[in-house]
Structure formats: structure tokens, C-alpha cells
Amino acid sequence: MKSIKSYAFSGCSSLTSIELPSGLTTIGKYAFSGCSSLKKIFLSSDITTIDRYTFSNCSALRYTYIGTTSAKTLSKMGWSFIEPEGKINLKYIYSGSTISGLEVIGADKDVVEVVIPTDVTGIASSAFRDCINLRKLYVPDTVTSVGYNIIHGYPTLIYCSEGSYIATLDAYKNYCITFSGVYTEQAGNNLYCKFDPETRTLTFTGKGAAYSDYEMPYRLYVEHISFEDYSSTTLPLAISYSDVSRYPNLKSIKIPDGIETIGYGTFSGCTRLESIIIPDGVTSIGDYAFSGCSSLANVSLPDSLSSIGYYA
What we know:
By secondary structure, the chain is mainly β.
């Protein structure tokens, strides 16, 4: 069979699946229009003609491979496609009759990790806007066009090489990580922080206050805070004097030995904070220190504690 005629399956609202034969080259207008129960359709690689409104009022995902005639034909008619083993919707961009690029336009909302193929040259605006579970997005150097709010501020780590196009976009640095590996930064005269994107752990070393204008790097992605070789009786100002909105995804923190005071509102509003270890030696917990920590089920208080503030 070489073609499917116009209106062939139009209005077949109970149709759930269909197999199209290899060698098929033409699909007529409205052929699958209104097939509201059709969830996916696999196209052979040789389709050269897809007429108007072929898939109108039809939610089916269209499966084919990058580079095939079918993928290019779908795109030319305004339809996206997804590779059979893939997780993202793709579309070739046309300038007249010439292909000018290949763009990511969307993804399954439940996707956790996405590796964008090296053929891709662009990411459309809001491409991953509904992907609230997306934790890792790998962007190849071939991407030279990026739309607005591609991840809508969700704590998604974006991996790319240092000299890539997306790494140069200041507008995205509040939303994504543009490096691979552990990141280390000096946060104060004698204070350093290290962020591991794999474990989402922020580790402090050294002692003392943070710089007055210090902005916690990659704060949206911090889920755990720990300390190594930290010597001070107070928590670093980067934590204790910070706006809690800096750590909206903080889940756990282990306060180091030697700390004597947990200050005013230190963890106030950390709604995802599930566990905290308060060591023996802490003598004071300030007002509102844990106010609004709705996920914190229980806290063990040390014998050394002598003062707890209001609404702590």
C-alpha cells in the first residue's frame, strides 16, 4: 500500500492503535482527524506527503526517526515527532523549503532525565515547562538557539560544555547548572563551599562569615547541606542570615560539632526539610528557627540546650 486516502479513519474515536505498512508514502487530508483515542502512531521512514489536517483533533504521538523523510515531512506540515526510544518531541525548522534546524519543542511531563541528540540545534520556549520531575538535561554543543523559560525555574540541572551557547546565556543562570562535575567557590575570607550536582549536596569548609554580597550558587538545587573541617561556634552567614527562599528544596542538614547557636529564623519556611541533626553543644535556638518546616516530623534536642526562642 502506497497511500491512505483522505478521511480514511476520520472520526474513528474508538480507534486505539494502528500499524502503517512500510512503503507507505502518502497520507491524505483528515485521514486520522478526530481519532481521539489513538495514543501513538508509528510512521515508516519513507512518507513524502502528509496532507492538511491529517492529525487534527487527534492527540496521538507520531513516532519516527531523526533524519527520515517522514520526520521532515511531518515537520513541514507543522507536526512534531518523537523517536521510538526517545523522550522528547522534535520538529525540523524550515526556511521556505530548506531545513534550517531541528528543535526540541516538548517532552513527557514525567521524564526524569533527557539527553538531547547531537542533531538538535534549538530548544523552543517552555519546552520543558511541565516537567516537574526533570532532574538532568544534557544539552549538546550543536544547540545554538534557546527560547524563553525552557524549564520554568524547576530545579533541573543542565549539563553542557563550558564554551557552549547555552553556557553563555546569563538569563538562564538562575535556573540551571552549566557545568559538569563538582563546583567549588570561595564564599568568604576563610569560607569555601562545594556543590555536588550528583548528590545535590552543598558542603561548607573553613570558618567565618560569607562576603556581604555573596549569592549562594545554585541555591535552587541544594537538597542537602553538610560541613567538612568547619571550625566555628556559629553557622556561616550564608545560611543563618539568608532568605529562606534561597533553599526551597532543602531536605536535610547535619549541623557540625562546635556550633552553639542556631539563630533567628535560620530554617524558617523550609517546607521540604525532612531531617536535621542538632549536635550536643548547641545551647540556644532562636525565635522562628524552624517555623513553617511542615515536613519536619521530629527533632532530637541535645542536653546542652538551655534556650529556645518564640515559635522556634
